Amino acid sequence: MNEQLQPLKKPSRTAKAGRLGTQDDIVYAHIFEAILEQRLAPGTKLSEEALGEIFGVSRTIIRRALSRLAHEGVVLLRPNRGAVVASPSVEEARQVFFARRMVERAITELAVEHATGEQLAELRQMVLDERESFSRGDRGAGIRLSGEFHLKLAEAAKNAPLISFQRSLVSQTSLIIAQYESGNRSHCSYDEHTQLIDAIEARDVVKAVDLMMHHMDHIDSKLNLDDDSASDDLHAVFSHLLQGKKTTKA
Question: HTH gntR-type domain spans which residues (predicted)?
Fold first, then answer.
C-alpha cells in the first residue's frame, strides 16, 4: 500500500524535504501545497477515507497529517463530523494579516542582517519561477511560489520560531485570499519581491521594511473584508425586495 504514495510531478521547495521523510510528512506536504496553491477551497471536507485511498495509507497516518495542519490553523477538526479546510471569518482574517505584518517586519529586519549570497540567489530564482508561472497561466503555481518566497525569506532570517510562525501564517493567508479576494486578480508580487531582494542585498533595513509593508498593503488592498458585504441571513440579503413589497402594498 505504501508504494502508492508519489510526489507531485514538480515538487515544491518547501515540501521537498517532507516528501523524503515519513508517510505523515508526505501526506502533510501534499495537502499543504494544495492549500497554498488554492486548489483546496475553504470549507472543503477532508474525508479520511478518500484521502487514505488517494495516498494509499491508513487513516491513522491521514489523521496525523490533518492534526499537523489543524495546529497551523488551516484545517478545522470537527468532533464526529470530520475535518474541513478552514474558512477564516472576517475578524480572523484581519487578525492573521495583523500578525503577518508583525512577523514579516521582524523577518525582513533579520534577513537584512543574516541573508547570505546563496540565499539571495535562491530568492531571485524563485521570483523568476513565479513570473514564469503567471506568464504561462499557471496561477496556482505562481501563488505557491509567492508564498514559498516568504518562507525562504524566513529561513534567511535565521530564527526558528519565526519560520514556524510564518509557515502557518502564509498558509492561512492563502486561504484568506481564496475566500476574500475581490475581482481584481492581477499579480505583481514578483516585481515587489525583486525590489525587496535588492534592498536586502544592499543591507538597507529601512528601505527593505518599507518595501515589505508596501507589499503587505498591496495584498491587503485586494481583499474584501467588509463585514456588511455578505450575510447568511436571507431576510437581510433580500431586504430590498421585501421593502419593495411593503411599499407596493401601502
Answer: 21-88
Q: Per-residue DSSP letters for 204-242?
A: -HHHHHHHHHHHHHHHHHTB---TTS--S-HHHHTHHHH
Cβ atoms 169, 154 nearer than 8 A? no
Same domain, 152 and 204: yes
| pLDDT tens-digit readout, 60-92 | 999 999 999 999 999 999 988 999 999 999 999
- At which residue does the C-alpha cell 505584518 appear? 101
CA distance linking residue 200 with residue 124, whole number of Å: 12
Kindly give the interhelix angle for 90-114 and 205-221, rounded to the nearest 10 degrees.
160
Whether 147 and 212 share a structural domain:
yes
Residue 233 lies inside a defined structural domain of this protein? no
105 and 175 together in one domain: yes
Backbone angles phi, psi at 87, to 5 degrees: -125, 85
Q: Does residue 129 lie in a domain region?
A: yes
When divided into structural domains, the chain yields a total of 2
**Contact residues for 106 (Cβ-Cβ < 8 A; gap 6+):** 157, 159, 162
pLDDT tens for each residue of 8-64:
334 443 444 344 578 889 999 999 988 888 888 888 999 999 999 998 899 999 999
For residue 74, give its domain range: 2-85
Strand spans (E) along 107-226: none
Asked, for residue 98, whether it belongs to a domain, the answer is yes
Cα four-point dihedral sign 136, 87, 227, 242? positive
Instruction: Say if 94 falls within a structural domain.
Output: yes
Residues 81 and 126 occupy one common structural domain: no
